[in-house]
Amino acid sequence: MGKRSYLTASDLGMDREAVKRSFAQHVEYSLGKDEFSATQRDFFKSLALSVRDRMFDRWNQTQQGYYRRDERRVCSFVRATGRGQRGLLDRSGAVRLASGAWQP
C-alpha cells in the first residue's frame, strides 16, 4: 500500500494475542484499573476500545490508499446502526478475535 504516515503507522495485529495485549493495556492505561479494581463493565470498555482501535487502523489504511490514488469516496462506519454495525464487525473478523480476549 505504500508508506504510511507516522501518525497512523501502527498496523495493529489481528491475532488473539495482539488483541489480548491491547485489551490489557486499555484496562491499565485507558481506564487506570488493575486486576483487583476492574469490573466487568471495565473489561467490556477495554475490549470495545481494542476493537475500535483495529477498525480505525484499517479505516486509516483504506483512506490513505484513496488519497494516494486521488479517489473521492466517502463512507462512514458511524452512519451504520444496529445490525449494520454488527455486520461490519462480523465481516472484519473483530467479533471472532474478541471472543475470549478478556478471559484469563
The number of E-state strands comes to: 0
Distance between the termini: 36 Å
What can be said about the biggest beta sheet? none
Overall pLDDT: 79
Percent in strands: under 5%
Radius of gyration: 15 Å
Write the H/E string, N to C: HHHH
Oligomer: single chain
Structural class: mainly alpha
General shape: elongated
- Counted by DSSP, the helix tally is 4
- Low-confidence segments, given as residue ranges, are none
Secondary structure: helix percent: 55-70%
Number of domains: 1
Note down, in words, how this protein is organized.
The protein is mostly helical and 104 residues long. The protein has helices spanning 16-30, 40-68, 83-92, 94-98. The N and C termini lie far apart (36 Å).
Strand-helix topology:
Elements (H helix, E strand, L loop, with lengths): L15 H15 L9 H29 L14 H10 L1 H5 L6
